[in-house]
Every structure is written in structure tokens, then in C-alpha cells.
Amino acid sequence: MLKTIEPRFGSSVNVTDDSEACPKSWIALYTRPRSEKKVRAYLDSIGMENYLPVQYQLRQWSDRKKLVEVVVIPMIIFVSVDRPDSFRQPANPLIIKPLYQIGDGKKLAVIPDSQIEQLKFILGQQDYPVTFDPDIFKVNDKVRVVRGPLMGLTGEIVNYDDRYLELAVPIGIRGAARLSIEKINVEVL
Fold first, then answer.
1. 77-114: per-residue pLDDT in tens?
2. Which end of the chain has the lower number of beta carbons within 10 A, N or C?
3. Residue 45 pLDDT class (50, 70, 90 cuts)
4. What pLDDT, on a 0 to 100 scale, did the predictor assign at position 14?
5. Domain limits of the chain?
6. 57 with 70: CB under 8 angstroms?
7. Quick check: 156 and 141 in contact, CB under 8 A?
8. For 25-125, CATH number?
9. Thinking of the domain 142-188, which architecture would CATH place it in?
10. Using the 8-state DSSP alphabet, how is residue 135 labeled?
11. What pLDDT score does 21 carry?
12. Which residues contact 19 (CB under 8 A, 6 or more apart)?
């Protein structure tokens, strides 16, 4: 007598659709300037799942208008990986290197699937151009120094440029000491 096996739903060792069994994570790859679309085509050709955040914008020239695909985050493409610790960079001269965690040049920066999904949602639902602001710092933000001889020091951002922050560190009732420090050495509180 043959026994019928009912299909089961849920977690299984060999099934990768279950996010708990095999969570999908993403890493970012730096590309050469203006070659993100070529890298996307290359990754597609070798069967590597990737995501290049793009949007379509109407551009106007003197003689015509055209809908153009514009890359939102220049020089970055996201690649889906099962295990970031065992990632091997594809051999392509247009791919510079993977993005590493700040302060730890050996550990890849892992982007959760939920953040990639949010980015896809924003770009898919937006009727107006979306811009990417890589700067997370604002004037009057409270920050803490996380690296270097001033580690542990807290202060408030007074001014900033591309590389440095100017901090005001309160010193009792007498005022505040001002100092300049590299952005990579601080984090927002």
C-alpha cells in the first residue's frame, strides 16, 4: 500500500524561500565611474543576483526630449549573497572592490534585505526624482568619537565638509572647546 505524503509548508533545510532558514543579505560593490550598467549586465550574464538602483528622468536637449535611465547611487551596485564571509569578487576590471565596514577593513558591509526592499519600493513608487544623500551628519547633531586618541569624546557638530567635522565639546559653564575630526571617526548618537 502506497502512502501519500502531504506537502508541508514552512522551514526546510533545502528550501531557500524561507527567510528564517536562509536570510538573504546584500553587499555593495564599488564600480568604476559610469560603468554601473555594464557591471549589471556582466553580473546578469554570470547568473549573480544584483540590484542597481535606477530611476527614469525626462532629460531635455535643444532638439529633443528623452526618458533616460539614471543611476541613483553612483559607483555602487548591490549583490545578493547567502554567506557574506565566503564572498568571492567576480573577476571584472570594472569592479573595483566590495564595500567594507567602517573601521574594519576585513569585514564586508552587509545590507539587510529589508533596506534593499525599501529602496526598491521608494524608487518604484516615486513620480519625482529621488536623490541619494551619502552624508548622515547635520549641524547640531550629537556625535561620539569611536576611533583614535579621542575615543569616547562626545560633542555637537558645528560645521562639516566632505571629510571633516567641526565639533563643539562642552566644557562646564565656561563654553565649549572646538576641534576638527575626520568623519569616519565619529558616529551619530
1. 999 998 888 888 899 999 999 998 876 778 898 999 98
2. N
3. very high
4. 35
5. 25-125, 142-188
6. yes
7. yes
8. 3.30.70
9. Roll (2.30)
10. -
11. 59
12. 113
